[in-house]
Amino acid sequence: MARDVTITGAGGEYMDSVTVVEWCAGVGDTVRAGDTIAVVETAKAASDVEAPCDGTLAEIVADVGDELEIGAVLGRIDDGTGVAEEAPAASAVPADPPPEAAAAPIRRVRDGRVVASPLARRIAAQEGVDLTTVEGTGPRGRIKRRDVERALREAPAVARQAVPGGGRAERLFVQTRQEGGPDPVVFLHGLAADLAVWNGLLAKLGPSVSTIGIDLPGHGRSPRLKAMGSPAALADAVAETLLAEGVSRCHIVGHSLGGAVALALADSGALAVRSLTLLAPAGLGPEIDGAVLHGLARATRIESLGAWLGALFSTPASVPEGYAQAVMRRRGDDALRDYQAALAEELFPDGTQGFDMRPALERFAGPVRLIWGESDRILPIRQTRGLAPHVALHRVAHVGHMPQIERPDLVARLIGETVRSAGSLRDNDGGR
């Protein structure tokens, strides 16, 4: 049976892409679990990729020089246990196919064609960037992700106008890891974040869990949709995207604003939501530190962003090394910051939570678990008072608003317990 070799976590918890710099084994070579079989590189460091099992390297999916998203499939190992069973690799950026293939990456060579990494090509297609206008800074002029992002920063209005309205372009950005059971776990981040906030946690979940990370509208690589000023509107956009991906049943993990969106999605009935794991969800009380939200949304310099990010953790010393720099790299677009600041004002007018998700929480009949840091300064833990009796609450000492980063092992274990507890719902429509 073929086992995927993935690069989940290889780039560091807050990187969202890596470049393959070396293969230490070739197709047909015998490898043992723990052997270094490849080396990948980020902007900060090189990392070894280890074999997940004993066996024979059966396939190399990503070539040296390819840039891939965290979670992508690097290659496959035949462990000798049976017929090879190839898992879908929707989160991977496809390796370069032959030039005549329709999905082939464009290469810049002597005849004027364009060479771009798969990840750069994917972002350019989504944002409507003409790669012939982008100057590549990679080896031999290869266009990399940073080059496309630079082009977007230099001419964001033109780039956005190139994306046609409606249809596929309006779907949210999705990153999928299909390795586990039939009902995936969907991850929804908070305001001014993106799906990369889950990278460290996903590495703790193991290969038995199928996961789908989604960038909310106007975050990460998702389009800036209009009229998104409520959890219900955001939930509709998420539901439309999931249904388009063929997902009608799922578990949901939501953080902060993403927790409110998760509750709205479960309450809408658009999908069969089998369980909810909510990390300091918004919507359970009026209080919120609006100054921090607006500071995060508007920060244009690493110094100011780092100060605001410190408020999300139990202590400034708890902010992981490189976290602020990684977040800043993904927030170089003025239009993105303006969109998020306007969204914050709509959702949290005058520094107050403008919506109440308690009724939705009480109506959800499936397994539901809240994880809340006792040192949370954004959404105070006292908002958990008076919860419905079926809601499990985990108060986590010495943790702020980011339990998925400060205590990823604990959060991963609790997610697994919540998902497993939904087993009795397997034959019905979920928690409603």
From TrEMBL:
Tell me the ranges covered by the Peripheral subunit-binding (PSBD) domain, including all copies: 115-152
Lineage of producing organism: Bacteria, Pseudomonadati, Pseudomonadota, Alphaproteobacteria, Hyphomicrobiales
Q: Which domain of life is it from?
A: Bacteria
Q: Which UniProt keywords apply?
A: Lipoyl, Transferase
Quote the protein name from its UniProt record: Acetoin dehydrogenase dihydrolipoyllysine-residue acetyltransferase subunit
GO MF annotation: an example: acyltransferase activity
* Pfam families assigned: Abhydrolase_1 (PF00561), Biotin_lipoyl (PF00364), E3_binding (PF02817)
Cofactor dependence is on: (R)-lipoate
Which organism is the protein's source? Kaustia mangrovi
- Lipoyl-binding domain location: 2-78
Sorted alphabetically, which NCBIfam families does this protein's record hold? Answer: PRK14875.1
Describe the family membership recorded for this protein in Swiss-Prot or TrEMBL: Belongs to the 2-oxoacid dehydrogenase family.
Xref: InterPro entries? 2-oxoA_DH_lipoyl-BS, AB_hydrolase_1, AB_hydrolase_fold, AB_hydrolase_sf, Biotin_lipoyl, E3-bd_dom_sf, PSBD, Single_hybrid_motif
Q: Which CDD domains does the protein's record reference?
A: lipoyl_domain (cd06849)
User: In its keyword annotation, does this UniProt entry include Zinc?
Assistant: no
